[in-house]
Structures are given as structure tokens and as C-alpha cells.
Amino acid sequence: MADTSDFRNGLIIKFKNDLYTIVEFQHVKPGKGGAFVRSKLKNLRTGKVLDNTFRSGESVEVVRVERKKYQYLYKEAGGLVLMDNETYDQITVDAVYFGDGERLLKESEEVELLVDEHDNIISVDIPVFVYLTVTATEPGFKGDTATNVMKPATLETGAEIQVPLFINEGDKLKVDTRTGEYAERVKN
């Protein structure tokens, strides 16, 4: 068991029967009354952030976790098949852990799994940006650029996103996996 003096950003604790990471914290010692720690905690499963106040010296349960790098191999009915970069063991991970970013992952992309001491998966971190080639889109026309007009484009993973009119087939794009939106065109 640890207490509030052990708090640091990124520490993972068990709180209200769930796992939270400490986003930020502040020790407060008011002129009257006992000291306390004001904190922001992010739920590792849902991503929701909550504010909580702990009494100074209050015990908290610290959870030991490990980050492991895996390579995305392919998708199958049960989920996504990943390979451990060190042992070459393959595991199947439910697509729920990947969220909407799963449709933007291409084969051989590296992901990071957060696992507890019993090798249970807590969360999956995919790269913030991926670089994908446009396989199909309608051509843009000159003069259509007066406003920020977007058109649909299909990427090499099969995902469809909105892109500016100047994007053509074969262009390589930088795509944000958090929002699933076009970020910029990349020069080859």
C-alpha cells in the first residue's frame, strides 16, 4: 500500500473498484484544517476524467502494470491478432480495446498494450498518427476551393474519411487515429 505522498503523474491506482491513472495532482495545505491532495484521475477502461480529493496520508492501492510492444498482424472474427515483438507469441485482442482507431490500423503497425501483473489487458495504445495511401476518391475541380469543402476518400485499410478537394488517388495522408480525421498530405 502506498499513500498520497507517493503520487506522481502517470501512477496507476485502484480507486472505486476500477483502475485510474493520475493525470495531475496538487498538495494543498490550508491555513486551517488538515492538508489534502486535489487530483484528476483518468479511468483506464472508459477514458473519463474525474476530480477527487484525498486526505493527506490516505492509503491508496498502487497497481503494477507493464507496457508491451506488439505488432498488428491481421483481423479475424474474434478480434485483432497481435504478435509480441520480443517472444513472437501471437494473441487475439478484442476490437473493443482499439475503439474507432482500429479501422485505421494497417498490417505491421506497432501498438502498445498496458497489462497488469496477471497479463490481463488494461488498454491498447495505437499510434496517434498513421500514414495511409488513398485508394479511391473522386477528382476535385478547380474553382471549388473557395470554402473548406471536403469529399470522401477510401484509404488502403478500407476506412473512409473526409479529405480536402485537392487530394487525389495515390496520395499519402497523415491521419489522426483519435478523431479519424485527415491531418495533412505527406510528400512521398
Outline of the structure:
Helices cover 0% and strands 54% of the residues. With 188 residues, it is mostly beta strands.
Describe how the helices and strands are arranged.
Layout: E1 2-3, E2 12-15, E3 18-28, E4 36-43, E5 49-55, E6 59-62, E7 65-76, E8 79-84, E9 90-93, E10 110-116, E11 121-125, E12 129-137, E13 150-155, E14 160-164, E15 172-176, E16 181-186
Antiparallel strand pairs: 1-6, 2-3, 2-6, 3-4, 4-5, 7-8, 7-10, 8-9, 10-11, 12-13, 12-15, 13-14, 15-16
Q: How many helices does DSSP assign?
A: 0
* Basic shape: flat
Give the C-alpha Rg. Answer: 22 Å
Strand order across the biggest sheet? 1-6-2-3-4-5
Q: What is the count of β-strands?
A: 16
Q: Give the class-level CATH name of the largest domain.
A: Mainly Beta
Structure description:
- The structure is a single chain.
- This protein is an all-beta fold.
- The protein has three domains: 61 residues, SH3 type barrels (Roll), CATH 2.30.30.30; 61 residues, OB fold (Dihydrolipoamide Acetyltransferase, E2P); 58 residues, Nucleic acid-binding proteins (OB fold (Dihydrolipoamide Acetyltransferase, E2P)).
- The chain contains no helices and 16 strands.
- The protein has a six-stranded antiparallel β-sheet, with no helix packed on it.
- A hairpin with a 5-residue loop joins strand 4 and strand 5.
Key phrases:
flat, OB fold (Dihydrolipoamide Acetyltransferase, E2P), mainly beta, 16 strands, six-stranded antiparallel beta sheet, SH3 type barrels, 188 residues, 3 domains
